[in-house]
Design goal:
Layout (H helix, E strand, L loop, with lengths): L2 H19 L3 H12 L4 H7 L6 H40 L18 H15 L3 E2 L5 E2 L1 H4 L30 E2 L5 H9 L4 E10 L10 E11 L4 H16 L6 E8 L2 E14 L2 E4 L4 E11 L1 H6 L8 E8 H9 L12 H7 L16
Parallel strand pairs: 1-4
Antiparallel strand pairs: 2-3, 4-5, 5-10, 6-7, 7-8, 7-9, 9-10
Helix pairs in contact: 1-4, 2-4, 5-10
The structure holds phenylalanine.
Phenylalanine binds next to strand 9 and strand 10.
Length: 362
């Protein structure tokens, strides 16, 4: 072998060893520059070709270029190996065992009112309703006047409604006595079709085993061109079945009066008592669970909607009462006593999100 060829063979052996020894991307780059950079060993040898005779140039050129290709290939292979190793290391370091329990010592429980609110929202969301909210502190217009309450209606009086001190102009703010004012706020700001539910706090001056001064309601409102009483019944029956998690419910609509709906009806559901347990869906007793009706034309007009063009229905029910009924909670006042033992017993697992697919309550 000629001296030049021996030189190339030695260079290849040296470069191969350095490539193999490169432990990271930076040292591999040093090897690449030393071989193929502007002043690299292979580059320098390619520069000598010009001085050779055509025959020599042909054979030497082929040999040096072949060496260049092999070294390039070796550098790339080593780079891939280093990248793979780095990725493996990262994957191993960032590995997360998702089967590990999350803070097994965590003790928080979801309050039955939050649970039932989320259940109701899950059911109506699946039917295409949005959630709307409004302020706890209301004015007379939204809580009463716009809802077609006559001026001398007893609900306006002190013994039902918490009023604030009169303002300079004589008007008094109040704690909303129901979630219905959010009907008004929604109809005044949104164009139909409207399909909303409104969960929230409500206040009335009342306290016994089934009444607390602060309680919770969820209101429903649907406004469109052809919404009728059949839609109201179908929606509320579907709700009752889903909420009580039974295949069938018996419902009964009894005529009633609300200033803001006409006609109005209370919905009763059939139940029976077996020992201490209340069973929904069977039996021959009736229990009232909500108020409802077709939105009164005056209410639509008060919100700037033409009753000849739009109509719809509304309903309202007590969340706390629904919770007592579904989960067998005997005294409403315990809901607000902040007793950790009570919450431990009646509360829900924070990791169980109520949804229709896997079941509302577990
Ligand atoms: N706002 C009524 C109440 O608090 C309930 C209701 C809402 C009735 C909507 C009819 C329509 O008793």
């Amino acid at each position: 072998m000629s001296a030049v060829m021996t030189d190339l063979a030695a260079l290849e052996a040296e470069l191969s060893a350095r490539v193999a020894a490169a432990a990271d991307a930076a040292s591999l780059e040093e090897v690449r520059v030393a071989a193929l950079g502007k002043k690299g060993a292979i580059t320098e040898r390619l520069k000598t070709l010009g001085a050779l005779s055509p025959d020599e140039r042909k054979s030497m050129g082929a040999a040096i270029n072949a060496l260049k290709d092999r070294v390039t290939e070796a550098l790339e292979a080593r780079k891939r190996a280093l990248d793979d190793a780095a990725l493996d290391q990262r994957l191993a370091a960032e590995r997360l065992d998702v089967s590990l329990p999350v803070r097994p010592e965590a003790k928080g429980r979801i309050h039955p009112i939050s649970q039932v609110t989320e259940e109701v929202v899950a059911i109506f969301s699946a039917m295409g309703f949005d959630v709307a909210e409004g302020p706890d502190i209301e004015d007379d217009f939204h809580n009463f006047t716009a809802l077609n309450f006559p001026l001398d209606h007893p609900a306006r009086e002190m013994h039902d409604t918490f009023f604030f001190e009169p303002k300079a102009d004589g008007s008094r703010m109040l704690l909303r006595t129901h979630t219905s004012p959010v009907q008004i706020r929604t109809m005044m700001t949104r164009k139909p079709p409207i399909r909303i539910i409104i969960p929230g706090r409500t206040f009335r001056c009342d306290s016994d085993q089934t009444h607390t001064p602060m309680f919770h309601q969820v209101e429903g409102l649907v406004i469109d061109r052809e919404t009728h009483m059949g839609h109201l019944k179908g929606t509320l029956e579907a709700f009752a079945k889903a909420f009580f998690e039974v295949d069938a419910v018996k419902t009964r609509f009894r005529p009633h009066f609300f200033p803001f709906t006409e006609p109005s009806a209370e919905m009763d559901i059939g139940y029976e008592r077996v020992g201490n347990e209340v069973r929904i869906g069977t039996g021959s007793k009736w229990m009232e669970i909500l108020g409802s009706g077709m939105v009164h034309p005056n209410v639509l007009r008060n919100c700037g909607l033409d009753p000849d063009e739009y109509q719809g229905f509304a309903f309202g029910m007590g969340i706390d009462r629904l919770a007592m009924l579904k989960y067998g909670i005997p005294d409403l006042r315990d809901f607000f006593a902040a007793d950790a033992r009570w919450l431990e017993h009646y509360g829900f697992d924070p990791l169980d999100q109520p949804n229709l697919a896997t079941g509302l309550s577990r």
